Prior knowledge:
The chain is of the alpha/beta class and 340 residues long.
Amino acid sequence: MPRAKYWLTRLIGLLLLYSVGHGVLIWLGTIGIHPEQWIASLIGYATTSEAAVWLWWTLPAVVGLIVLGVWELNSQSQFSARAVSRNAKRIPARNVREVVRLISPGANIDFDFSEGLISRAFPDAGSFTSWETVHDGKELLVHNVPELGLHGSRSRILAEPRYAWVLNFRDCRSLSLRNLVIGHTEPGYCQGGVLRFENCSDVIIEKCELFGSGTYALELQDCDNFEICDSLIRDCTYGIGNFRNISAVTFRNCDFRDNRQFDLLNFAGAANKVMFKSCNFRGNHSSGYLFNFSALNARHSIYLNDSTVVGNTFVGLADIRLSQNNNKIYDNKTPSLRPL
């Protein structure tokens, strides 16, 4: 789970720094340098033994916490840089076959075509792509690739098999998808959606349109550090998205329009620091809730802020209390057409 991995790596880092600090103090003692004498004179301890206790047990921990804090601030500030920069050198791809062949670490692929059927690229594959069999065809899997950019100019990427995800990413990090229109040639049922991510981190989806999936527009499992911004999700036949064990996921300035049929946003496992900000929900139709939290097994932090929820049909906004602020929510109805 991303959150458990997050705290485990930082705990290990703190213990390592603590051990290094003790090692430095022992080494200084072997060469005749005794910092406790300086500490006693500097901060006024009565004896050097008291200063030695402070130095031995407290100073390495304080230094370790400072180092980890600086590391954390730097890693957060570099999130956008870790997802492939839009200004990096681009590699043009003239069709979907070239896209599949070009996918590799550090590749920033520019879709130099207006429309492509991704399933027609089969059987082309590379070291970081493979094909999985679904009920009615093949599904592209992108795996174990860091620093990948997929950028277009409203390029349409379509899948013909209705049971396939259009793009499926596994064990990837630092991805960016920009200015793409992604969906199926025909809406399907049961399994195939638009974008699926498993065990992925540091992902930006910007100015994209996800439409007409058989199931959901998005599925995130064991993922963290996602930003979906300035994008449209529309006309999906089962709902908007499924999310299991996610952390630090932000939807910003997104439109959710004319999606249907069950609970629209489903959360399971753990969900921490999930934010919907300045989003617009309009014309969606659900037999359940807009936000479904029933499968969460831990405390969650999911927020809806500065958003508009207008002209939708659902049983209710959420099945349990949703943290929200400064939203406009009106003209919504239940499936029996009663005003909420």
